[in-house]
Write a structure and sequence with these properties.
Helix content: 25-40%
Distance between the termini: 132 Å
Structural class: alpha+beta
Radius of gyration: 38 Å
Number of domains: 3
Largest sheet: 5 strands, antiparallel
Strand content: 35-45%
Number of helices: 5
Order of helices and strands: HHHHEEEEEEEEEEEEEHEEEEEEE
Length: about 325
């Protein structure tokens, strides 16, 4: 009987030891998976991908600098995260205290990049399972500058640019693209990749240029002004009209024969200058024809002169309209 009890006790003891061993293995498995430092990172990345800035901010426990918050939620945030591919989380690296650094390798636009997340152990649950959280820190900031504009687009979201500049708090990692695509002014896209909370990011600068549509619209206004001026000069029979062009002659011009026509219209160049847009001097040619009488011999002969002219104009551009004010000197 005693031997049977021993065998039973031994069986129970073996079963208990196996159960304890299985529990230890289970605790280790949980602590290396759902209770590992990787889990908050995975949840944070998922929040970025879904554009849930509130959740991402709560997980990161970050403070938001006093900047424009347009990049912290929705489309702008999803766009920043959408370019992250081939994500691989590395083995947590112990740091001072109860902290670890979780390395992450990934790709953005074909470039191999890495980011390290600093987390700290905040306690345990159910006595055995570790809890981890990001170490609080301020969010990175991306500066954007644009020439001669008070608006731009960053990650597909229209943003205000007071005095041509603005600062945006951003999550990391991510890519942020600024551009300007207006009807009259545009700028090539400029990109910045943010890889960490303490990694400096070069400002995004948009070099604004006049679009072809603006040049065409200004050119049409210039042609209209010159054609109207030539028509008025012909109607008034004036060699020196209130126009950029004129002709000086000592001969007598037969009344009713003077005709003006623009033969070469100015080329349109628009450039930024001192916080505004200016049209480069407008150079062209006009022809005056008619009949004239020599003041000395009295003989009649044709008037056929092509004259070069140049003038400037003040440019005012509205949201969908262009106004020109010719500046003529006599």
């Amino acid at each position: 009987m005693s031997q049977a009890l021993v065998r039973i006790a031994a069986g129970w003891l073996l079963g208990l030891m196996l159960a304890v061993a299985a529990a230890i293995v289970a605790v280790n498995v949980v602590n290396n998976t759902v209770a590992s430092p990787h889990q908050p990172v995975r949840e944070y990345l998922a929040a970025l991908e879904s554009g849930d800035g509130g959740k991402a901010l709560g997980l990161l426990r970050a403070t938001v600098p006093p900047t424009d918050p347009s990049m912290l939620d929705g489309t702008a945030l999803q766009t920043a995260a959408s370019r992250i591919t081939n994500v691989k989380l590395g083995k947590p690296e112990p740091q001072d205290g109860n902290r670890v650094s979780v390395p992450m390798d990934y790709t953005i636009d074909g470039s191999q990049l890495s980011t390290s997340f600093l987390l700290e152990k905040t306690g345990t649950e159910w006595l055995f399972f570790n809890t981890w959280a990001f170490v609080p820190a301020p969010l990175p900031v991306v500066e954007v500058n644009v020439v001669n504009s008070v608006e731009a687009t960053v990650n597909g979201v229209p943003v205000n640019m007071p005095d041509g500049k603005n600062s945006f708090a951003v999550f990391y990692p991510g890519e942020y693209e600024a551009s300007l695509n207006g009807a009259y002014f545009s700028a090539a896209a400029s990109r910045a990749t943010v890889t960490g909370r303490n990694v400096p990011v070069a400002p995004l600068t948009l070099l604004t240029q006049a679009t072809q549509q603006l040049k065409d619209d200004v050119g049409a206004k210039v042609r209209e002004f010159l054609d109207t001026c030539a028509a008025e000069a012909t109607k008034e029979q004036r060699l020196q009209p209130d126009c950029p062009f004129y002709h000086v002659s000592r001969n007598n011009i037969t009344a009713g024969t003077i005709k003006w026509a623009v033969t070469e219209y100015p080329e349109i160049n628009i450039e930024p200058f001192d916080g505004r847009w200016v049209v480069a001097p407008l150079d062209g040619k006009a022809k005056v024809t008619g009949q004239q009488q020599d003041s000395f011999s009295g003989a009649y002969f044709p008037l056929n002169e092509e004259v070069a002219f140049s003038f400037t104009t003040r440019l005012d551009v509205g949201a969908d309209a262009v106004n020109l004010t010719p500046q003529l000197s006599y």
